[in-house]
């Protein structure tokens, strides 16, 4: 996509975040914007970076590693890589070595591997547990009733930092309907904060291009926006 367009789109999303926060009485600084750059060429990420964007979300490991190589000159400039796609156990090593965050941990085995494989000279890997908030058969994520047990186990792993919860709700029409699963995820995070007071549980990773405002209204601290920044995917 044309560089100017990426920057215009990015600024429009930033303005929407500010407007939404104003309307619901939140400080815009408490909502981080994750630019979801799956399927996008490195030049699009570079355009966003030049406009101040630092957090990028990727779904496919090899694609992400390729782009990280192309953007290696920016590595010291505060680029922060978030893995947000389904993670198979044979891919955990690359995720543990090349990312700052993994949002899609939904079972203990994956978390254990990430902890063992996280290089010890790197800071702990930031983790969100993915919750299948609508119980959809087609979606990954832990069931809501599994979250407490999974979180307690993940909190014990030395090279991980349990930051919060992530969800991708089923598509819904209208803000009131969209808010329901987000409110449930926020409630689950509050329960975890009580259950595990020593953990840095400060992250609700929720809200995409079509439901960002509803997520912010329900307490999202990180919104994951692809289409509205980089355009429609093929
Ligand atoms: C693709 C993707 C997004 C971004 O979705 P858009 O609708 O393009 O904003 C967010 N989160 C996850 C996990 C994704 O896979």
TrEMBL record:
It comes from Microbulbifer donghaiensis. This is Pyridoxal phosphate homeostasis protein. InterPro entries: Ala_racemase_N, PLP-binding_barrel, PyrdxlP_homeostasis. Its cofactor is pyridoxal 5'-phosphate. Belongs to the pyridoxal phosphate-binding protein YggS/PROSC family. Coiled coil: none annotated. Pyridoxal 5'-phosphate (PLP)-binding protein, which is involved in PLP homeostasis. One of its GO terms (molecular function) is pyridoxal phosphate binding. It holds the Pfam family Ala_racemase_N. Keywords: Pyridoxal phosphate.
